[in-house]
Design goal:
The protein has about 425 residues and is α+β, with helices and mostly antiparallel strands. About 65% of the residues lie in helices and about 15% in strands. The chain folds into 4 domains: about 60 residues; about 140 residues, Helix Hairpins, CATH 1.10.287; about 100 residues; about 100 residues.
């Protein structure tokens, strides 16, 4: 018989026993015409009945809370989960606004580029007119040469003037071409920069959307109260260095045993036995992959969603080289902020966006943990208070607090800098220069 049926039967039996005892106790009190708290015998019997009902309700809730971890989580943690979802949705809405602003700036840059191209076309038309004028001047020069016998002195002065005009026009044309080329190059660079910003904002928007979806799925699972293991959930993990095949097999067996214990604890607590399943070729492939003496992060995942009491549990394994992603002091993400022009909520949203960007970059570079650790909450509160008191534009940076490998987690410090100089930070109060 499953745990759920046993629980229901226990609640029914317990309620019936308490109700029976309460009824008999009320009957005896009524017959004996006993009085509690100076009440009449009939009201005393009614009070005993009420107390019996209260005991039934309290015992039912006690049994449910004692046997259902998900019911306790749903009752006491659902508000915090909903608040996290609302906050993430607000961050997503702010990111969408920034994306729209970037798209408007990109459209403006494209319009400026079209205007520059129009000006270049007008300059070419002016150049054509200048060439035509030069041709007419050359014709006039030829006419002057024909009359050289009559006005040779006049012809010499005319030739000098024409040469001066020609050189001046050529110099102006060259300068105009250089200026137009510079303007076009500048506009192209601005357009490429705006396009890169739009792509970055789209990537952050997709990341926040995935976060919201994961929180929604988690909330639905908590409401249903019967999903014990979720698809892709890590049942066991470890960082290993294996010098030989025999050692690799032993390490893999230990991880699988740990994953089996985790699965039993989540789906069938208090029992024993082998409930996880993985194919032999998968195990052999994992052993052959990690037996080269290098550091690997090995993880055992759940292949699907499983309910309480459901067996067997299909799993699969993954091994990733445990290389360094960030060194201590590396900048993970950065943004700018002007505290004097922003509300407290806007400052908090900008810091949340910076942390989300750091988490997104860490995951995109291969760090397996999907959370960022900042340190003590008191340091963060002090950092925000210092930031609110600053009345100039500053750069916010999230830097790695220590060497971070693929296995994670990513620990960061928040820095406020200006012109490369650290104004204040979350971890170390001393200032310095950041490259």
């Amino acid at each position: 018989m499953s745990t759920g049926y046993i629980l229901i039967l226990a609640v029914l039996v317990l309620g019936g026993v308490i109700a029976t005892v309460g009824d008999r106790l009320g009957t005896r009190i009524g017959k004996a015409r006993l009085s509690l708290f100076n009440l009449r015998p009939r009201k005393t019997a009614t009070l005993v009945t009420i107390l019996t009902g209260t005991v039934i309700s309290a015992s039912t809730l006690g049994v449910l809370f004692a046997t259902s971890e998900y019911l306790r989580k749903w009752l006491f943690e659902i508000d915090s989960l909903q608040e996290t979802i609302r906050r993430t949705r607000r961050d997503l809405y702010q990111t969408q606004i920034q994306k729209n602003q970037a798209e408007e700036e990109l459209a403006k840059a494209r319009a400026d580029r079209a205007s520059a191209q129009k000006q270049l076309a007008e300059s070419k038309e002016q150049l054509t007119g200048a060439k035509q004028q030069l041709t007419e001047a050359d014709q006039a020069l030829k006419g002057a040469i024909a009359e050289r016998s009559r006005a040779q002195a006049e012809t010499a002065r005319t030739e000098a003037e024409l040469n001066r005009i020609q050189n001046q026009l050529r110099a102006e044309i060259r300068q105009l071409q250089v200026e137009k080329n510079r303007l076009i190059t500048q506009r192209d660079a601005e357009i490429r920069n705006k396009e890169a910003q739009v792509k970055k904002l789209e990537a952050q928007q997709a990341f926040l959307a995935r976060e919201i979806q994961e929180l929604e799925l988690e909330r639905q699972g908590l409401r249903q109260g019967n999903v014990a293991i979720q698809r892709g959930q890590i049942l066991a993990s470890a960082v290993v260095r294996i010098p030989s095949t025999s050692t690799a097999k032993q390490a893999v067996d230990q991880l699988l045993n740990e994953a089996n214990r985790t699965a039993i604890r989540l789906t069938r607590p208090g029992t024993s036995g082998q409930i996880i399943q993985i194919t032999k070729p998968e195990v052999e492939q994992l052993i052959s992959r990690i037996d080269d003496g290098k550091d690997y992060v090995v993880r055992i995942f759940s292949a699907a969603n499983y309910l309480v009491g459901e067996t067997p549990i299909q799993v699969f394994a993954d091994a990733v080289p445990n290389r360094s992603i960030f060194l201590a002091g590396d900048v993970v993400a950065a943004t700018t902020i002007d505290p004097s022009q922003m509300t407290d909520e806007q400052i908090q949203q900008r810091i949340n966006l910076l942390i989300a960007a750091a988490n997104f970059r860490a995951r995109s570079l291969g760090i397996l943990t999907d959370s960022v650790e900042i340190g003590r909450i008191q340091d963060v509160i002090t950092f925000i208070s210092q930031l609110k008191q600053y009345n100039q534009m500053v750069d916010l940076k999230a830097v790695a607090a220590e060497v971070t490998n693929v296995s994670g987690p990513l620990k960061i410090d928040l820095l406020a800098t200006q012109n490369g100089k650290v104004l204040f930070r979350t971890n170390h109060p001393d200032t310095g220069t950041v490259n």
